[in-house]
Write a structure and sequence with these properties.
The complex is a heterotetramer of chains A (100), B (538), C (774) and D (217). Helix content of chain A is 76%, strand content 0%. Chain A is mainly alpha-helical. Chain A has a domain of 66 residues. The longest helix of chain A is centred in the C-terminal third of the chain and has 30 residues. In chain D, strands 1-2 form a two-stranded antiparallel sheet. In chain D, helix 1 packs antiparallel against helix 2. The chains are: A mainly alpha (100), B mainly alpha (538), C mainly alpha (774), D mainly alpha (217).
Chain lengths: 100, 538, 774, 217
């Protein structure tokens, strides 16, 4: 019998994998992808609970998360493009201008 | 003899919100100055002057219509405008005998500061800041709502910060930053204190209010909590006053500030702290105030002697005057926490008098700097020959600052020491030595600056100009008038002081006002009479 | 008629205000006359008031006239009110009377001063303040006048402010007085705290109810104020320096009126002091001993002073000590009596000295005076009257009052009283001595203003010796040169002779005629050269001898000068000190003085002298001791003074004491005659340098204030800048330091931040979990 | 095992392998492909609980638009060089990352375990206001356009702003491109540093260089 808990566990796994990915990978694009993974994990939670609690609100939230994710990717990738154009093959570690 | 100052009408019949105007007029003036284009140089000054003169006139009107027999709050709207209902924050303004003269002093000094000194550059923002400052100061003196009090208390920092930082001399950024950080540090704790008493009051009565009167009458906090909260308030005010040892921002700020800034800083802004001691120290926390009174009396005395000693060896004339402020304000602190009717009255009188005499001194020093471009005492000398009127004015103001009887400075100082003596003879006797030191540092400075032979530029220094005399003249008149006939002022202050003392008496168990013994003279002296031993009176 | 008292301070006040407004326009001398008129008006009003008071019954002779409430707060209340009673009227009479005279005198004295009108502004203001001081019915109003006169004294002492010395003296006067004012203020507080009132009638009326410690504290604190104002040890320091002011100021403020206000104050609170006499005599003993100590101490210093005004200044300190002694003995009448007579003769002396200074081109050094009797007849005649008065010669004013004080000290009884009397007597002796010294040095002897004084003679001798030595050295050098030249000439002669001999040998060996002729020519030439060289040598020798002689003479002259200088003996006493051989070398200033012709002063200055001289002669009539009916002053003051003093000493004792004091005065005068008139002894034996230096006390105090005292203030300023402010700035640098430490965490690496976020959320999650589980 | 559960598990395996692939693929292109796999898996999971509309959106927006955008960027910039995953320049970053990830996982699981979801799982196609059962899309639409309409409008603005921002960011600035300042040193999260130690001087130089660059643009 499928329960929301399954969704939550799956979400937790994906979220953790995504988090580790953000921390470990150096390519900004891949880091972005890992962030997408985490967002999807959250979406899974929302969907699972919307189903489990029989509330459409969870789905609405997912909808908004997707919109925001899309916006984020658009801007984020634009930033990556701007950076990459100035320095080829830069990794996230190379960009530490904001160091204190 | 004083009937000419009797209130013309009762304050209850007021329809015109005069106190609100005292804040709104300068505020609007500031906005107007900010809106006028930069190019119209003379307009800024004119608008600022108009706004401050109107404010001054209104404050004089408040003075004239003030009911001198009433010790309570006057001009208070019966139905204060509620601003944030759920938090009980109200636009609630009033004056009593304690704040009345500070309001009038503010209204009096600002026009003079605007007439007396022209900024060296960017007049537009200068005048805007100055009269914005006036609005803030007025707000502090009149707010009965702790929230608005705190807002105004913080608001005044910003204009002064910019006045010092932009139009100051030499090390101005350092001085401005120091000034700002010191006062912010103090008031941050006070904000916590304010919230604490509001919550205490709320948990006891279920009413959220920032009304000082309600809070003070309620006294809904425990003894220990009250003492701690009192300390948070005292710290904020001590920085502002300033009380030793948190005074070090003052010499820097005064020295580096532009002349008008120094005048206002010394004349009005320091009084924010001493006024706070009255309204939010003694009135709000009577128990804690009486408990801490000895410590604060000693700190006041230390301030008197310490400020005097430090002033003696200053090489910079303006810095010397600044340190003399530390000493004078020490007297006020001493008088405030001696908590006798005489000393409290004296403290209020001294607040006004210090504003007049030190304000005038800063004017004179500022004008001297304009002429000679130095404040170093060593580079001045023999100015009396070149500028006799200047020297005469300086002498008079200096003597007032020294506390010569017959001039205003003496009355406050005397009442403070008298009251303090009744409360604690030893502290008062030590504090009284301050009058010796005051003579030492001021006369010595005067001798080095004005006496002797003039050399170089000193020999050709310009005497006072007519507009400068115009600024000084009202101050001089008040200095003499309040010294010879202080009654009109004292009789308006005293009822409020009596109310305050009664309030303290009612709210503190086992405390009564220290009073003098009263002996009655016998009809005639009989030589053979047994000596009647009066109990040890000290 | 008592209401005329309002006019008394009003006149000088109006004078002050009108001079302030139009004084500069009035100019000289109108401004001076206006001021004099103002003071005279005050005097006239005082006289009217005097008769008004006299018209009252004796019991009603204490009238309080209230003007308005001054300072009222809480239980404290004080009015601007005048207490008109015999004491204040007596004081006012001589303040305004002498004040008027001195105003008139000043018109002459300040002639030509650029700040002529300003001087009279201050003078009128002073009179006003002094009258407030006298009239005040409470301690605070008296304090107003007290400080007012102090401020005027400050202005007037530093009147010629361009001189650093004058400015310094003015400041010193004010500050030293402030030390005393501290005592006055605290006494006022104590009076209020223990009595509840600070007006004199209440204080005197309730004195009996005060506990002894309070009483003692009250009196002694007031006495601290008195020490300042009335220049008692240890606060007398300012008075001698205050002589830097114009001389009329010294006469009015620093001799006749202001400095006596301390004594006046003590008399005002005589109820307190009387109580102390009864129950705490140690308190009055302190007062008496400070008084007599000051009198004695100042008299020793006055003996050695060379500045004419300094002598009078120390004399004033000494006389004030007498008055304080009288107060300490409880005989207030004697104190007031002496105050009045002293005001007469000391004002006279000061004005006289001012006249002398004026006539002597502002030179104040008595050693340069002498023989002025003939040049300044009025000044010297009046001055001599003043001298006789102060020296205690009967029947002049000073004798009667001083005698009464000595008697009152004796009358205290016991060893204490006798010791007080003894020191008072010695002081009287010294007073007679130093005043006689002053008179003899100034008015008797030869006129020697144009002669060099001792220092100048030394200077002249030094210049003379230096000159002789220069001459000797110069001649020596010249002689050496001549010797050298001669040596050279001798050498040249030798060479010439050798050449001649060689030429002759050449001639003798000549082979042929031609050679012989040539050689002969050479021989001839050499012979001429030898002749020339011989002549030159002779000339050089003559020059050498001559230079040698000159050098010898110069050397001799120098040696003579030295031996002369070493043999230079001090002139026998009375003999005119001259520069002798060095007279050519006296400084230019001496010559300048020699060209100066001393002159008698103008009428504005001499009139007050004459009036005061008359008063100094007859002042004693105020309170003659012979019968009770003659105690005019005592009877007059009775309503103001709590009790009547009855001398315990018998009539015989009084006579003996009077004779003893006359004898003491006589000894003093005779001593001065021997030394300064007859020159039987060397004055240097008496005028010790340490006395001239005022026992080094002033210098020690100055050194302390300039040394450790200033160091302490510097230390506090240092403390403020470094420790107190240092803590503040330390807090700032701590924040900055910790900030830059934490800054390292801000690596700029996105992944590091992400790790931080991760670990943070782990912690948050853990916290949630714990919260939920709990 | 119901079909529902079966579908969930299959899709779950797809999601997990996909996400692991994203993290472990050396090549960004591969990572992007793995991401598509994951997103499809997630779409299936949506379908399992009958979130039809969102599943469609998931495929269209995520797989269709976002990942393609990623691939475009990869191609456009030629940053498709493989990453050496055996090297970790920041000391301590990797172990701590794993610890943190594991901790998050453990804690989330613990929370899930303790939370105890109590609702009744079922069809979210609940009856509408009129009593009839509305399809998922209708419900969603009703919620979005009634209760959440303000948020919806705001998202519209957000997207517009994002597009404008992206254009501005990615716009080619006239003139020669300045290289980013060279940052020689990398230091970790307070766990030490690699390369030469960073000094204030370097940082200041870097800042100064940044300023210059800003001035030029």
């Amino acid at each position: 019998m499928l329960t929301p808990t399954y969704y939550l566990v799956l979400s937790a796994l994906v979220f953790s994998i995504g988090a580790v990915g953000v921390l470990v990978r150096r390519n900004p694009l891949v880091m972005f992808m890992c962030v997408e993974l985490m967002l999807n994990a959250v979406n899974l939670t929302f969907i699972g609970l919307a189903w489990g609690l029989n509330d459409i609100g969870g789905q609405v939230s997912v909808f908004f998360v997707m919109v925001v994710a899309a916006a984020e990717v658009v801007v984020g990738l634009a930033i990556v493009v701007a950076i990459m154009r100035r320095r080829d093959g830069a990794t996230a570690d190379d960009l530490s201008v904001l160091r204190g | 003899m004083t009937n000419f100052l009797v209130a013309a009408e009762s304050s209850a019949e007021l329809s015109f919100p005069v106190l609100t105007s005292l804040i709104v007029v300068p505020f609007l003036g500031a906005v107007l100055v900010a809106l006028v284009p930069k190019a119209r140089v003379e307009a800024h000054r004119l608008i600022a002057l108009m706004a401050s003169v109107i404010t001054g006139a209104l404050s004089v009107w408040v003075l004239l219509t003030f009911d001198r027999t009433d010790g309570g709050f006057q001009f208070r709207s019966d139905d204060p405008n509620v601003w944030i209902e759920s938090l009980g924050i109200r636009w609630d303004l009033a004056v009593d005998g304690i704040s009345l003269f500070l309001v009038v002093l503010t209204g009096f000094l600002f026009p003079l500061a605007i007439i007396g000194v022209k900024p060296e550059h960017s007049p537009k923002s200068y005048f805007a800041w100055i009269i914005l400052l006036e609005a803030g100061v007025m707000g502090v003196f009149m707010s009965l709502d702790l929230f608005f009090f705190f807002v105004f208390f913080e608001v005044v920092l910003v204009p002064m910060y910019f006045l010092i930082g932009t139009w100051g001399h030499g090390n101005r950024i350092y001085a401005a930053t120091k000034f700002f950080l010191f006062t912010m540090f103090g008031s941050a704790l006070m904000m916590i204190g304010i919230l604490a008493i509001v919550f205490f009051h709320e948990s006891a009565t279920g009413i959220v209010t920032f009304d000082v009167v309600a809070l003070a009458e309620g006294q809904n906090w425990g003894v220990d909590a009250g003492r701690w909260i009192f300390l948070s308030f005292v710290l904020a005010f001590s920085v502002k006053v300033p009380v030793f040892p948190v005074h070090t921002w003052l010499p820097d700020a005064h020295t580096e500030a532009p002349t008008a800034g120094s005048v206002i800083l010394a004349g009005v802004m320091l009084k924010l702290g001493t006024y706070g001691f009255f309204r939010f120290g003694l009135y709000l926390f009577p128990e804690a105030a009486t408990w801490f009174a000895p410590v604060l009396m000693i700190l006041g005395t230390v301030g008197i002697l310490y400020g005097a000693a430090a002033a003696t060896v200053q090489k910079d004339l303006k810095r010397l005057v600044a340190y003399s402020s530390v000493a004078h304000l020490g007297f006020i602190v001493l008088g405030t926490f001696a908590i006798t009717t005489e000393s409290l009255t004296g403290s209020v009188v001294q607040m006004v008098n210090h504003g007049l005499s030190t304000g005038a001194l800063f004017f004179l020093v500022g004008w001297m700097y304009e002429r000679r471009h130095t404040r170093q005492i060593a580079e001045l000398g023999g100015l009396q020959k070149a500028a006799p009127v200047f020297a005469a004015m300086f002498t008079l103001v200096m003597l007032s600052s020294i506390g010569l009887p017959g001039l205003n400075g003496f009355v406050g100082e005397f009442l403070i020491l008298l009251g303090a003596f009744v409360a604690n003879p030893w502290i008062a006797s030590v504090a009284a030595t301050g009058v010796i030191f005051a003579a030492v540092y001021l006369l010595w400075a005067y001798q080095r600056v004005f006496h002797g032979k003039a050399e170089g530029d000193n020999a050709t220094m310009e005497d006072l100009r007519p507009n400068e005399l115009l600024v000084l003249f009202p101050m001089i008149v008040l200095i003499i008038f309040l010294g010879v006939y202080p009654k009109p002022m004292i009789e308006r202050i005293e009822p409020s002081i009596e109310v305050l003392v009664a309030h303290i008496d009612a709210n503190v168990d086992g405390w009564t006002e220290p009073t003098a013994d009263v002996l009655v003279a016998e009809e005639s002296h009989d030589e053979g009479e047994e000596e009647e031993e009066e109990g040890e009176s000290e | 008629m008592v209401d005329f008292v309002y006019l008394v301070p009003l006149f000088p006040l109006l004078g002050f205000i009108s001079l302030m407004l139009v004084g500069r326009r009035l100019g000289e001398p109108a401004a001076g006359y206006l001021a004099t008129a103002a003071c005279g008006g005050a005097f006239a009003s005082t006289v009217v008031t005097f008769f008004g008071i006299r018209g009252l019954e004796e019991e009603e002779r204490q009238v309080t006239k209230t003007l308005f409430n001054w300072v009222i707060a809480g239980d404290f209340g004080v009015d601007v009110a005048f207490l008109v009673d015999p004491l204040s009227v007596a004081m006012m009479l001589f303040v305004t009377g002498i004040g008027t005279l001195i105003h008139l005198y000043s018109v002459g004295y300040m002639h030509g001063d650029p700040n002529f009108s300003k001087f009279f502004i201050y003078l009128n203001m002073f009179v006003f303040s002094m009258l407030i001081l006298v009239l005040g019915d409470n301690l605070l109003l008296t304090f107003l006048g007290w400080e007012g006169v102090g401020a005027c004294s400050y202005f007037l002492v530093s009147f010629w402010f361009t001189e650093e010395k004058n400015a310094m003296a003015g400041k010193k006067a004010f500050v030293t007085n402030r030390v005393g004012d501290w005592g006055f203020m605290v006494a006022t507080f104590l009076a209020f705290a223990t009595i509840g009132s600070i007006d004199y009638l209440t204080i005197n009326g309730t004195a009996a109810q005060l506990s002894t410690p309070v009483l003692a504290a009250l009196i002694l604190l007031l006495f601290v104020g008195v020490m300042g104002k009335s220049a008692q040890f240890p606060l007398y320091l300012w008075l001698p320096d205050a002589m830097a002011g114009p001389t009329p100021v010294s006469a009015l403020i620093h001799a006749a009126t202001m400095v006596t206000s301390g004594v006046y104050l003590l008399t005002r609170v005589n109820g307190l002091i009387y109580e102390a006499l009864l129950h705490a005599q140690w308190v009055t003993n302190i007062i008496a001993w400070v008084g007599v100590g000051t009198a004695f101490f100042a008299a020793t210093i006055a003996i050695a002073q060379t500045d004419i005004k300094k002598v009078l200044a120390y004399s004033t300190v000494s006389q004030l000590g007498y008055m304080v002694l009288a107060v300490g003995s409880g005989v207030f009448v004697a104190a007031i009596f002496h105050m009045i007579t002293h005001a007469f003769f000391k004002a006279l002396l000061f004005l006289g000295s001012g006249s002398v200074i004026h006539g002597m081109d502002d030179d104040q050094d008595m050693r340069r005076y002498g023989g002025l009797r003939k040049l300044m007849p009025i000044t010297s005649a009046t001055f001599i009257i003043g001298w006789l008065a102060i020296a205690g010669v009967p029947p002049f004013a000073g004798f009667w009052s001083k005698d009464e004080i000595l008697l009152s000290a004796w009358d205290l009884g016991g060893l204490n009283g006798k010791l007080l009397w003894f020191f008072g007597l010695i002081t009287a002796l010294m007073t007679a001595f130093y005043m006689s010294r002053q008179v003899f040095m100034t008015f008797y002897g030869d006129y020697r203003f144009g002669d060099p004084d001792a220092d100048e003679v030394d200077e002249a001798w030094a210049a003379y010796l230096a000159h002789a030595q220069d001459a000797k050295l110069e001649a020596g050098t010249a002689a050496d040169d001549a010797i050298e030249a001669h040596t050279k000439a001798v050498a040249a002669l030798e060479t010439a002779r050798e050449a001649y001999v060689d030429a002759q040998i050449e001639l003798s060996q000549a082979a042929d005629e031609e050679a012989t002729v040539a050689a002969q020519k050479v021989v001839d030439a050499k012979s001429t050269a030898v002749d020339k060289a011989e002549a030159a040598e002779e000339k050089a020798q003559a020059a050498r001898d001559e230079a040698g002689a000159v050098a010898k003479a110069a050397s001799q002259a120098d040696a003579d000068a030295r031996s002369e200088a070493s043999r230079r003996v001090e002139p026998a006493p009375g003999e005119q000190l001259t520069a002798g051989a060095a007279s050519e070398f006296v400084p230019a200033a001496v010559k300048q003085r020699a060209e100066h012709h001393p002159h008698e002063s103008n009428w504005q200055m001499t009139t007050p002298l004459v009036v005061l001289a008359v008063l100094s002669i007859f002042g004693g009539l105020l309170n003659l001791p012979f019968t009770s009916d003659l105690h005019f002053l005592e009877h007059w003051l009775e309503p103001s003074i709590v009790f009547e003093h009855k001398f315990a000493a018998s009539g015989l004792t009084k006579w003996i004491l009077a004779i003893v004091s006359i004898v003491a005065g006589g000894i003093g005068i005779m001593g001065a005659v021997m030394i300064y008139l007859k020159h039987n002894a060397d004055p240097k034996k008496i005028e010790k340098p340490i006395l001239l230096d005022a026992w080094g006390y002033d210098r020690a105090v100055s050194a302390f204030m300039g040394g450790p005292g200033a160091k302490m203030f510097e230390g506090i300023a240092w403390l403020d800048a470094n420790i107190v402010d240092g803590m503040v700035n330390g807090t700032g640098s701590f924040v900055r330091g910790s900030g830059s430490a934490v800054r390292r965490l801000q690596s700029g690496l996105v992944r590091s931040y992400a790790l931080g976020i991760t670990l943070g959320s782990v912690a948050l999650l853990a916290w949630f979990l714990v919260r939920v589980a709990a | 095992m119901s079909l529902q559960l079966f579908s969930f598990l299959v899709a779950g395996v797809v999601v997990l392998t996909g996400s692991l692939g994203v993290v472990m693929a050396k090549h960004p292109v591969h990572a992007a492909l793995f991401l598509i796999q994951t997103l499809f898996g997630v779409a299936v999971e949506f379908l399992v609980v009958e979130a039809h509309f969102l599943a469609a959106i998931q495929v269209i927006v995520y797989a269709g638009a976002i990942v393609i955008l990623f691939l475009f960027v990869i191609m456009l910039l030629g940053v498709d060089n493989a990453e050496d995953l055996s090297v970790e320049p920041i000391i301590g970053q990797r172990p701590l990352a794993f610890v943190g990830g594991a901790a998050i996982l453990g804690l989330l699981l613990a929370i899930i375990n303790s939370a105890g979801i109590t609702g009744v799982p079922g069809n979210v196609d609940a009856p509408g206001p009129t009593g009839e059962v509305l399809p998922n899309v209708n419900q969603l639409a009703e919620s979005i356009f009634t209760e959440q309409v303000f948020a919806f409008e705001v998202t519209g603005i957000l997207l517009t702003v994002a597009v404008v921002g992206a254009v501005v960011m990615a716009r080619r600035i006239p003139g020669a491109l300045q290289p980013l300042p060279d940052i020689p040193a990398i230091s970790g999260f307070g766990f030490g540093s690699t390369g030469d130690t960073d000094t204030d001087g370097d940082a200041d130089a870097a800042m100064a260089a940044g300023d210059e660059q800003g001035d030029d643009s």
